[in-house]
Automatic annotation (TrEMBL):
Signal sequence, renumbered to the chain: none
Chain segments annotated as transmembrane: none
Name this protein carries in UniProt: Diguanylate cyclase/phosphodiesterase with PAS/PAC sensor(S)
Residues of the full protein shown: 371 to 624 of 634
Organism for this UniProt entry: Desulfuromonas versatilis
Domain EAL: 1-254
Coiled coil feature spans: none
């Protein structure tokens, strides 16, 4: 059996699951959101990383049912946390190019929000620069449609694509996620430090929210904090984890 066939079956057999990685507001120390990340536990091969199965899903079109499953599961989980008394927790979901460009994407998102009863503002869609820059006019329309429905919009892996913040001011984007590759070697790498500083400064003047990804060490945190980066995500705070484990953290604190 090839990976495509087994991925198709995995969806039906419930071998996919989500883990959630906390996003922190440094000033309050509170978890303001979580990013949902897909995992696949293959009955024989064990855990298959998304780097392996997401590209296959994209090539084969399986990303459409898979992406819909991720969106529904993540929204239902966020709604359940809300019902359990975790206020205002936002759920971030990664969206692939094929999903975003599908003519029924908007309807699918709306239907899932209705089914799960999640406040649209508590859903954040993560899009990469390459997705929105591929076809700028269509992207602006789709993003605007999502934004008028009050859905939160983020640019993932910011800085790795070929867009610029000047360009992004034409998009109804709420926040940018500074890519892990720039965060990795701050504060020591002078180039990365300059890039991160520039992104933070420009985001500030364009009134965009910013979150730094891949924060693993205190020296990275210190650099970001000094430059007024308020939100962070990374192993330093918490790894992606199953919902049950996160529920414990919500009741106990990180
Ligand atoms: O969770 P991890 O850091 O291993 O994820 C690796 C890559 O897989 C990241 O680029 C992440 O965005 C992507 N990924 C994880 N889950 C999903 C998903 O549900 N949908 C899409 N499109 N990509 C995902
Ligand atoms: O492309 P995207 O940003 O969606 O991918 C997120 C990926 O980054 C996930 O696979 C997640 O497991 C991983 N990740 C999250 N925090 C850290 C971190 O602090 N260090 C490293 N190396 N990876 C991280
Ligand atoms: Mn992401
Ligand atoms: Na990212």
């Amino acid at each position: 059996l090839n990976l495509e066939t087994s991925l198709r079956q995995a969806l039906k057999r419930g071998e996919l699951f989500l883990v959630y990685q906390p996003q922190l507001d440094l000033a309050s120390g509170r978890i303001t959101g979580v990013e949902a990340l897909a995992r696949w536990r293959h009955p024989e091969k064990g855990l298959i990383p998304p780097e392996k199965f997401i590209p296959i899903a994209e090539e084969t079109g399986l990303i459409l049912p898979l992406g819909e499953w991720v969106l529904r599961t993540a929204c239902a989980q966020a709604r359940a946390w809300q019902a359990a008394g975790v206020p205002g927790l936002r759920i971030a979901v990664n969206v692939s190019a094929r999903q975003f460009n599908h003519p029924e994407f908007l309807e699918t998102v709306e239907r899932i929000l209705q089914e799960t009863g999640l406040d649209p503002n508590l859903l954040e869609l993560e899009l990469t620069e390459s997705i929105v820059m591929e076809n700028v006019q269509d992207a602006i329309m789709t993003l605007t449609d999502l934004k008028v429905r009050n859905i939160h919009l983020a640019i993932d892996d910011f800085g790795t694509g070929y867009s610029s913040l000047t360009y992004l001011k034409h998009f109804p984007i709420d926040r940018i996620k500074i890519a892990q590759e720039f965060v990795r070697d701050i504060p020591n790498d002078a180039d990365d430090a300059a890039i991160v500083e520039a992104i933070l400064a420009m985001a500030g003047s364009l009134n965009l929210e910013v979150i730094a990804e891949g924060v693993e060490r205190k020296d990275q945190l210190g650099f970001l904090h000094q430059r007024r980066c308020k939100e962070m995500q990374g192993y330093y705070f918490a790894r992606p984890m199953p919902a049950e484990q996160l529920a414990e953290i919500f009741s106990r604190g990180l």
